[in-house]
Amino acid sequence: MKGVLLVNLGSPDSTNPKDVKKYLDEFLMDPRVIDVPFWLRSFIVRGIILNTRPKKSAEAYQKIWWDEGSPLIVISERLQKKIQEKTTVPVALAMRYGSMTLKKGLQELVDQGVDEILTIPLYPQFAMATTETIDVKVEELKNEFFPHLEITSLPAFYNKPEYIEVLSKSISEKLENVDYEHLIFSYHGVPERHIYKRDITKNHCKIDGSCCITPSPAHEFCYRHQCLKTTALVAEKLNLKPGTYSNAFQSRLGFDPWLKPPTDRTIERLALEGTKKMAIVTPAFVSDCLETLEEIAMEGQEIFHEAGGKDFTVVPCLNDRDDWSEVLTSWIDQWRIADVKTAIA
After folding, report:
1. Residues 190 and 127 in one domain
2. Mean pLDDT, consecutive 10-residue segments, the chain of 345 residues?
3. Domains of the chain: total
4. Residue 68 three-state SS
5. Is 188 annotated as a binding residue?
6. Is 291 part of any known ligand binding site?
């Protein structure tokens, strides 16, 4: 019997600093998020970050928290419900971090008699700190608790026509009556070393402006290429004119080189250069969360206004849109009768 496990990032159980601290500890201590030796990671996270950041992060969560709970959790649950209504395959939901654990999600499917699972990391682009950490954790749980399971993971879908169609439609609907001058595609940032580490050719990725547009097997696991390709496909779909849109990377952490340009500085620069009407979309996220609702919609707007900008429009994530749930359902049903590679080919 087949079943599906949707997997998103996760969230603290509440906006209480203690819950936020517990969540941040699990998240930031993941060796694929902060990929340094354990002793150094522990010193950075438990010796520095967790002594200052939980209170600030808790205040940020309080700004965006819904009556029903964490926006990311609530939206993911709504999406799971819509998909379950459209398919006969059991569909469970889990988070990589927090109390909605991957083990609980797998157990929920096993309890329904499932022995073959398709995991769907809800990230369009592959990255060490997102898709890979999910796949690795699922494999660990399988080996320890569910050795009888056959588990397959949905590959990155950043360039799949159905996804690009829905993403483009969501942008055009939001901006249909908006007079904007520039559209920023803001992706979650990652350290540059993550790009080099996942270069399967060991010599292609240079982050030099040409490697991401030069065909290579490295692109299968290159987050930067997949982000830039997402933008290019959407721009082509929406007939965006060169110079009216750009890419940026948000949520920097620490002092190591991260992908550039930074979103906050890009917003400020464009405003200082005279842009009065800006729109921004966050295609690395399929569900609105702290990084979109607070970092972009609140902090980003404040930066824009302080630098002289006027109108700041944020395109919502795909969330639980009907057409997005239909795309995911179609991939699930194709996998149900074939295999995952055929499903998104």
Report:
1. no
2. 98 98 98 97 97 96 98 98 97 98 98 98 98 98 98 97 98 97 98 96 94 96 98 98 98 92 98 98 98 98 98 98 98 86 56
3. 2
4. coil
5. yes
6. yes
